[in-house]
Prior knowledge:
- The protein folds into two domains: 20-88, no CATH class; 99-324, Ferritin (Up-down Bundle).
- 54% of the residues lie in helices and 13% in strands.
- The chain contains eight helices and six strands.
- Strands 1, 2, 3 and 4 form a four-stranded antiparallel beta sheet that branches. Strands 5-6 form a two-stranded antiparallel ribbon.
Amino acid sequence: xxxxxxxxxxxxxxxAACSNTEDGKACFVVPAEQTTCPAKAEVPHDExxxxxxxxxxxxxxTGSGTRxxxxxxxxxxxxxxxxxxxxxxxxxxxxxxxxxxxxxxxRAPLAAGGDxxxxxxxxRAIAWARAGCDEHASVAAFSRLSLQLMxxxxxxxxxxxxxxxxxxxxxxxxxxxxxxxxFGAPRASVxxxxxxxxxxxNVDLPSLAAAAVREGCLSETLGAHVVSVAAQxxxxxxxxxxxxxxxxxxxxHAVLSFRIVAWALQTGGAEVSVxxxxxxxxxxxxxxxxxxxxxxxxxxxxxxxACEQGIAEVLKPAARQLLAT
Length: 325
């Protein structure tokens, strides 16, 4: 039985108020030859990761660091680790490439009301409408990425393919909104995108490479694999066709992300290598399988199995190969 939206909202608010901050550990990757850790006031907070957590951020470091060898999906990494207060910022990880500003996931609203509960829509129509907004936000993410790559002097082949990816994402959004309409939503009319800041063009190569790992090599790669399985199992032809198109094009975007990171590693040297290894050491993405199960009409247990398969058979070997080159 589906829980009342009001009950879900109350439970979420209580969880945020009572139990979202925990004692944990935060680490950052260091060169193998480094034997000491800096004082906590000198720690590069933008390089910190929290082992074995998805959607959690460091609130504050609470003690001194120790030199450790940390186990990660791609092997053992040398790191400095500190006791920390950690807070859950993103309880629901997403499928695809999200758009973040200052750690906040942003998407444009639907002006036609397809993204509002309580309007008499089916849950499935709402889910497809929201998925369209997520795909629409990916256009902003790729557009920003193209400017950042230009600022860093990236090869023209990467720029061309990033622009093509943005066009693909716009097509995904339109396909999702069409399915939302098929399931009873009003025709989509997207509102203004809620940018908080001017688009950040100036970025250093280690930061860009780390973001490409998180948003592309991990999120898009795993998302493409799971969506491909959902497309094969979806019982309705129109849903199957939309998911198949998204899976194929997201797979191309995932490959593009690995190409971008490989170029950054070849160009940037040791500093980029540390940033990339730190990004891979962070918890790997947890996809919103409940939402995908609702949209695709596929049993969630099958999607969970696909997720595990994607991590074992796609993400891990691809990450190891990337780091080995």
